[in-house]
Amino acid sequence: MPLIDETARGVYIIAATPFTDAGALDLASADRLIESYLAAGVDGVTILGVFGEAPKLSNEESLTFAKRVLARIDGRVPVVVGVSAPGMDVMRDFTKTVMDLGAAGAMVAPLTGLKTDDQIYGYYAQVTAALGSTPIVLQDYPQTTQVTMAPSLINRLFHDFPSLKILKHEETPGLKKITLVRADEAAGNRRRVSILVGNGAMHLPLELHRGVDGANTGFAFAEMLVDVVRLFHAGEKERAEDLYDIYLPLVRYENQPGLGLAIRKEVLRRRGLIGSAKVRSPGPSLDKHDHAELDHLLARLDRAKRERGF
Question: What PANTHER family does this protein's entry cite (predicted)?
Answer without folding.
Answer: 4-HYDROXY-2-OXOGLUTARATE ALDOLASE, MITOCHONDRIAL (PTHR12128:SF66), DIHYDRODIPICOLINATE SYNTHASE (PTHR12128)
